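A reminder from the course coordinator: this example appears on the midterm review sheet, so study it carefully.

Given structure:
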């Protein structure tokens, strides 16, 4: 599990996307009672409300793909 020190603020688009997914799917199964457009509208309104209320949603940073090479990648610093 990631340490709380590694958490970074989630963007509003990330939060809206997760909420939209939660409204449209039950696990991996798509629910037919929530249209995608309505889910997007509800998710965006929830995100706006959370921002106005002062909530900060944190997420774990994305990790790089494992690399077993001892040679540095030319584009990586």
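Designed residues:
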């Amino acid at each position: 599990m990631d340490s709380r020190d590694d958490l970074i603020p989630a963007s509003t688009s990330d939060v809206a996307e997760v909420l939209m997914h939660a409204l449209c799917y039950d696990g991996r199964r798509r629910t037919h009672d929530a249209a995608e457009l309505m889910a997007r509208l509800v998710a965006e309104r929830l995100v706006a409300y959370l921002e106005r209320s002062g909530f900060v949603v944190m997420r774990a940073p994305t990790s790089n793909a494992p690399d077993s090479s001892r040679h540095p990648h030319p584009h990586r610093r």
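The chain has one domain: 1-55. Residues 36-52 form the longest helix (17 residues).
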